[in-house]
Design brief:
The chain contains three helices and eleven strands, in the order αββαβββββαββββ. The chain starts with a helix and ends in a 12-residue tail after the last strand. The chain is mainly beta. It has one domain. About 15% of the residues lie in helices and about 50% in strands. The chain is elongated, with a radius of gyration of 23 Å.
């Protein structure tokens, strides 16, 4: 099922990129060549991922929102960093409150009212990365196949929400005893396509992203088992990423103009 979802996303992505290349390629044929430029290329990005490894035992599919801050030189080498906020609505490992909730999954708040408990996935990803753009159209040296690799860190936890506001058993510092906060070193890879418009109209990148994180508990104690959980995890994510790029080109020294009185 997961493989079919990835293939479906991949087919859609390939068709969109093909149509885009054809339509913009027709315009570029009538223009002069867009030679490779250096500059800063911040972007706003969205990702959708399928979990693997230990991550699949804890959470379902998730999404990310974030940004890149990338520098590209005239030879199309890339370097920079990215941050992404991770979120999802499916939590499979949700038995940490079994000792507190009733048979219907409810807690009694401090006013004596029933409070329904919901679980969500929350997390963060920070990566420092480098890469390369390989042009596939000699009319546009700033666009082409995109390859990126990175190293950084990943954190994820279970966000516990109650339908009423006065549930001291799972709020404040007490929530930290149940949220299963984990974190550790992470690696990321992306294969895709980047397009930079010579007229700066449409600039984007899209592709397949893979991430591997080696995490462990960052809490000193889990209240439901009353001890530190020393399990070492391998958390995997794979999916797609799309981003809107804001190109900020910088001039080469020889392009600068000097005026002498």
């Amino acid at each position: 099922m997961r493989i079919r979802i990835i293939l479906s996303w991949g087919t859609t992505l390939f068709l969109l990129l093909s149509l885009h290349t054809i339509s913009f390629g027709q315009n570029e044929e009538a223009s002069i060549g867009f030679e490779a430029k250096r500059g800063f290329f911040p972007s706003i990005q969205y990702g959708y991922h399928l979990p693997g490894g230990d991550m699949a035992n804890r959470f379902g599919n998730n999404s990310t929102l974030g940004f890149d801050a990338i520098f590209k030189n005239e030879k199309n080498w890339l370097v920079g960093f990215s941050y992404n906020w991770m979120f999802g609505g499916e939590v499979k490992e949700n038995d940490m409150l079994d000792g507190l909730v009733g048979s219907e999954g409810q807690l009694i708040d401090q006013d004596g009212l029933f409070s329904v408990i919901r679980f969500n996935e929350r997390g963060h990803m920070l990566n420092f990365k480098g890469g390369k753009i390989i042009p596939i159209n000699n009319r546009n040296a700033n666009s082409g196949l995109l390859f990126e690799v990175g190293i950084g860190a990943m954190w994820h936890r279970t966000d516990i929400q109650a339908s009423t506001s006065k549930v001291p058993q799972i709020t404040g510092d007490y929530e930290k005893g149940y949220d299963r906060l984990n974190g550790g070193a992470a690696f990321t890879q992306m294969v895709g396509y980047q397009y930079l418009d010579p007229k700066k109209r449409v600039n984007f990148k899209a592709g397949f992203q893979f991430q591997q994180a080696f995490t462990k508990s960052l809490r000193t104690i889990d209240y439901d088992i009353m001890e530190y959980n020393d399990t070492k995890r391998t958390d995997l994510l794979s999916g797609i990423k799309v981003a809107i790029i804001i190109p900020l080109y910088t001039k080469d020294p020889e392009e600068e103009q000097y005026f002498i009185d």
